[in-house]
Amino acid sequence: MNHEEMTAAILDAKNRKGMTWEQLAEKVGMSPVWVASCCYGMNTMLEDQAKALCDALGLKGDVPQTLQTCPSKSWGESVPQDPLLYRLYEAIMIYGPSVKDLVHEKFGDGIMSAIDYKMHVDRVEDPKGDRVVITLDGKFLPYRRW
Amino acid sequence: MNHEEMTAAILDAKNRKGMTWEQLAEKVGMSPVWVASCCYGMNTMLEDQAKALCDALGLKGDVPQTLQTCPSKSWGESVPQDPLLYRLYEAIMIYGPSVKDLVHEKFGDGIMSAIDYKMHVDRVEDPKGDRVVITLDGKFLPYRRW
Amino acid sequence: MNHEEMTAAILDAKNRKGMTWEQLAEKVGMSPVWVASCCYGMNTMLEDQAKALCDALGLKGDVPQTLQTCPSKSWGESVPQDPLLYRLYEAIMIYGPSVKDLVHEKFGDGIMSAIDYKMHVDRVEDPKGDRVVITLDGKFLPYRRW
Amino acid sequence: MNHEEMTAAILDAKNRKGMTWEQLAEKVGMSPVWVASCCYGMNTMLEDQAKALCDALGLKGDVPQTLQTCPSKSWGESVPQDPLLYRLYEAIMIYGPSVKDLVHEKFGDGIMSAIDYKMHVDRVEDPKGDRVVITLDGKFLPYRRW
Amino acid sequence: MNHEEMTAAILDAKNRKGMTWEQLAEKVGMSPVWVASCCYGMNTMLEDQAKALCDALGLKGDVPQTLQTCPSKSWGESVPQDPLLYRLYEAIMIYGPSVKDLVHEKFGDGIMSAIDYKMHVDRVEDPKGDRVVITLDGKFLPYRRW
Amino acid sequence: MNHEEMTAAILDAKNRKGMTWEQLAEKVGMSPVWVASCCYGMNTMLEDQAKALCDALGLKGDVPQTLQTCPSKSWGESVPQDPLLYRLYEAIMIYGPSVKDLVHEKFGDGIMSAIDYKMHVDRVEDPKGDRVVITLDGKFLPYRRW
Amino acid sequence: MNHEEMTAAILDAKNRKGMTWEQLAEKVGMSPVWVASCCYGMNTMLEDQAKALCDALGLKGDVPQTLQTCPSKSWGESVPQDPLLYRLYEAIMIYGPSVKDLVHEKFGDGIMSAIDYKMHVDRVEDPKGDRVVITLDGKFLPYRRW
Amino acid sequence: MNHEEMTAAILDAKNRKGMTWEQLAEKVGMSPVWVASCCYGMNTMLEDQAKALCDALGLKGDVPQTLQTCPSKSWGESVPQDPLLYRLYEAIMIYGPSVKDLVHEKFGDGIMSAIDYKMHVDRVEDPKGDRVVITLDGKFLPYRRW
Amino acid sequence: MNHEEMTAAILDAKNRKGMTWEQLAEKVGMSPVWVASCCYGMNTMLEDQAKALCDALGLKGDVPQTLQTCPSKSWGESVPQDPLLYRLYEAIMIYGPSVKDLVHEKFGDGIMSAIDYKMHVDRVEDPKGDRVVITLDGKFLPYRRW
Amino acid sequence: MNHEEMTAAILDAKNRKGMTWEQLAEKVGMSPVWVASCCYGMNTMLEDQAKALCDALGLKGDVPQTLQTCPSKSWGESVPQDPLLYRLYEAIMIYGPSVKDLVHEKFGDGIMSAIDYKMHVDRVEDPKGDRVVITLDGKFLPYRRW
């Protein structure tokens, strides 16, 4: 079973059960973005986590094993076309140089890790229209000099 | 004066004065990411804001006017090569489908605006290594049905 | 059932029934462009709308549910090759800077939303040859300053 | 004088005079989108029109002649990055198949001309936020069978 | 039946019958390039024409109907690799600016229509080697000024 | 002097003299498309031809020599954006497979040369609108078997 | 049977029979590169040649006919990734301008035909390591002036 | 002095002296393709060779030194547009798989080196039209197994 | 059996047996990177090596033969998206010019062979976090002058 | 002074002084690859290091300051054309999946950092031809689960 087949099996079971990522995340005891990312073949679960997810969805067979296997990550189009994803891409590209300068001002030469990294999505109420708040939280990695 | 020339003039003055975006942001009375984005030709200031910035940097001539002129925004490479920017791009692409599903679960069909949008960069102390925390905060826009 | 299968099922039923998008739009009580866009997997219907469409086409099973599921939108070729679509693309690209300036003159810095957006296609009689008139109608969104 | 130099000269004079495309359009006696498109090197003016524009802007030399010379049209990036232009591109791509079907239902096999074509930008008041309304109006051209 | 399946069915029958496009064109009463283009899913036939073609080839079922359905035209590679097609592409690109200038000298600002358009392929005898003569014949369309 | 500088010098002199390619072609004693193509750096003239052209335009210096030097031909964008050139590209791509089949039916396996090649542009009167007629005329080259 | 299926059938039979292109070329009475190119769907055989090849490989059905049918040639990746093919590509690109100049010095303005063309691959013994010697041999085609 | 400036200086002197690559190659005592490739910044000369070339062309200053400096090789367009270069590219791509198989049949798994490599261009007389014969001659490099 | 099917069969057997590349490499008597590369269709084994691998994995049929057949190597995306592979790509691109200069300083004009080449992956303990150490080891190939 | 100008100034002084990266590295007290990478605008030096380098090269003005400024890293072509760099790219792409699997076998899910990273180039004597040995040495970063 490859990761595409695993994702299809999980999404199918999730739809049939009518469960949200938030509900599944509670079952696994981890955060929703991370749990979803594992199911999309972008991260690996530990054995217990994979078991908890598959129990919640009634999945057996190769799914728990594949959830623990390191995937080859890819995302097809280098520029996303879906409007929700494009807006994220656009925000990163437009504000990229500003963010880069501020990281360097606050930390020196280095980057925000995308590996020692976590991410959250929240809904914040606002009388002018509720807001999507996405938090990117990565360890600062300074460049090594050698 | 076009926006590239404006950016060069501002960065040059900023370096000569040894000022940070945070210091300039205080002078303008706005947030650092936004002030930097205007200086990179990605947003427009109001007259007072442009004046405050130029006073702080000792800039005259066409700079204040150009800061108020709507720019044609672009970012060259569709996939950034600078490692700091690439990590942001990578995080967005890897977690994109997960974020998309969570927005739809919390809000229904629609997107996070990149126009009614704000963004912050923070340094968060952590004994295992301080962390870069970037907040994307945009109004939810539901798709219109007509 | 994914959105490609849904589109194929709907187009097949539409052809067999010999119905136009205009007729289907009347059944659903919404506009033709929007109804067609849902069927092409580019928008989501409410439950009643999906039911009305499927009743008109004699479709059952997963189609009504998939019509209500947020799709991942994409359009393959970044530059369309079909002549009708290419002419639309060409018109947007050739007149893009002019349109941009006029929006800024009339509204200030911001954009026309493609989310709070509607679109119509009309045939206008003309003695020199009837004309296709396409109306793009989106809410103006001013850039937030923060 | 090539068309890029012509555009730069016109935009410079327009800014110095503080005139809008609407004001210039009135001087020329044509519509604003079309007048702007000529100044961006995307269309050609007749001699009288070029003269009226240059008189309004105080321009002489090669500008009037270049305004009457057929340009080689191009727009650089095949997918625009400026958010205002990208939204237009996105709207055309997402609703393209729907628009195509409706044109064929109303007219048969053929296209909307981008040559025998006109375009308008309007501001429409709306209590929920004013709207940008863009009208694309092109002659229907049926495919010739031979 | 989509247009790819239609093309495959027609080419298969054409090969089995050992008929040329010229012979089929005679049956349909139209020119060979146009008849072939319909069979490649690049144009639509009228009902009589589709019937005549299918009778000649012994085809039934959905083929006649699909021949009358507006196709979504595309050609895959933006630059063709087949040597015969590449030479056509090369000739157009190398002589493009020259052809453009001559059209403008003879007609003014406008284009040759690719819609109100016809095309012929001929073999012309020549003692130094026979020649392929291809004629592109399209209506001149002047740009509208508005 | 490179070919870009040569082209600029010729176009400048041609504009100042107000001469057309047809008039220059008469001076050189060759056809207009070919003469223009040499001036665009896409073909080489013989010494007499280069001299005749430069005499007609009042050009001296390196121009006649550069007109006789083999250029490195290129055309920038692999897909042209100028509408007149795009229509030629589109016509070739849409009718390419049909033209290919007809050449093979009439000649066997081989191609139309783009080297032993000539091309003409004509205006043909037509009560429904005059037509642009472009003739591509190249020697048939059969594939060698070895 | 399309050309991909033909190639697969021939390669399969060749492997089962354990025959080399050189052995097959002897059976057909032509050179190995050319015979292999026909089998890869890049050239067409005459009836006798196709029959000889199929007899040697024990192939029947549509293979001999498809070997005689003009293929639509293509090679997928515009830059090859296989190291052997990439080295050929690299050699052509690095030495391209030098080769071009030498052809023009020896022949004048024109090209080496890739149609009236033959190619050989030889192994040449060398005490420092045997060498691959590839010969490209094409008719010189002078540009026509008209 | 970078390699582009060196190439420009050499080509300019070569044109002024009216010398061919063959004549220069004789002065340097090496083959014409290689000498030209050094001048195009694609290979490095030894000190004596650079001196001989510069003496023949009357060049001084940084040219001899730059001829000995390892260049960063590049060729711009990944697919060449000049017809002479495109034909070479096309021949390599069309016959690539055939050549690859023959190299493997004759040598086993490995490649033809493009580094321990030489290349010649010859004119071969032929009553049906003289032929361009290009020889690619590279050491066979077997893959190492480890 | 093509190389993709071979790879799938090997990976499937490897997973079922729960064997690592290191364990398989020991069975074959070669290094792990090389053994894995053969299984991914990027190198060819000798008969004994292929037999040893297939014995260890319980594979029969065409697998041993395909392991000995020269593959057509390719890697899909020219820029890898998987983060582990992207970091390798990034390191090569960022330090490329530095590495190039150092090779030329130490060896003169030439390259590191990727054919007479070996590669190792090691884990090196480090109190600040263990390190991945990858060694690229290729024969220096000097450019031939001819 | 931007980083391109800084690189040009350093390379120019380095050539005039006839110094190697190894000699400069000794002056700075760091490794040659890293020192070169700073000079190519790919890393930042500390104040002392920049001073030592500039003293060795006789450089003043903005160079030491620019060496300490965080650069925006980029490398132009996504696939390098220079043969030395291409071989590195090729080796990474061909052995990428094998390396990835071995890292996961030895460390679990994670990557080799390209930030906490060092790199060395060595010449290793070998009777069959000396070898280039390049060492990539980066900290292992495990994916965070959250």
Automatic annotation (TrEMBL), chains A, B, C, D, E, F, G, H, I, J:
The active site is at R87, E90, S113. Gene3D superfamilies: Cyanate lyase, C-terminal domain, lambda repressor-like DNA-binding domains. GO terms for molecular function: cyanate hydratase activity; DNA binding. Keywords: Lyase. Its EC number is 4.2.1.104. Belongs to the cyanase family. This is Cyanate hydratase. It comes from Halospina denitrificans.
